Amino acid sequence: MSIVPVILASSSPRRKELLQGLKLNFQTHPSDEDETVAPGTAPEEFVEILSLRKASSVAARYDQGLVIGSDTVVVCDGEILGKPQDEQDAYRMLDMLQGRAHWVYTGVAIVEAGGNKQQVAHQKTEVFMKPLDESRIRSYIRSGEPMDKAGSYGIQGLGATLVEKIHGDFFTVVGLPVSLLSDMLEEFGVHVL
Ligand SMILES: Cc1cn([C@H]2C[C@H](O)[C@@H](COP(=O)(O)OP(=O)(O)OP(=O)(O)O)O2)c(=O)[nH]c1=O
Hints:
By secondary structure, the chain is α/β, with parallel strands linked by helices. 31% of the residues lie in helices and 26% in strands. Strands 1, 2, 3, 4, 5, 6 and 7 form a seven-stranded mixed sheet that branches.
């Protein structure tokens, strides 16, 4: 158990659940940072910039503690897909992803509040989606699940039925690479196990 306060700079229920899995005491403090990044930024850089921006903005509000920020995007044909704007956008994304492979990138940053230590890294996982016809995509969109998720699907929910297989870390797809995060926490003196 750590005595350093840990703060998750996120409004994502998935990230909260995944961090709870590490049995750390922590609080959440969502960041309201702007999520725009310069066009043409590579995905690995994109998720690291946003993870660090989220963690740094929340760290600035505390005198001490370790603040964790994270960001997830889906990458297909060189296009970075974030959360859909609306149902039409969700359809466009799912139609693009069906029947083929894409990458999910998740960045994770730890920023020491009241100090000057910080670390950022990312992980990527390849996801193979089944071929999906229009009615299946529309039915999935009607479930409401796609709307707050990068690439318009959630592998941990109904979206699991759309996925054929993955290569890499499952938790990276859901939105927080917990194994990588635990290694990073070690560097800050927090031992999960
Ligand atoms: C691909 C995929 C993404 N997602 C989610 C994880 C993230 O919550 C979301 C990507 O959006 P993010 O902008 O990374 O995160 P967020 O806005 O939800 O939360 P915050 O910035 O406050 O931390 O997509 C899933 O839940 N399952 C999946 O399979």
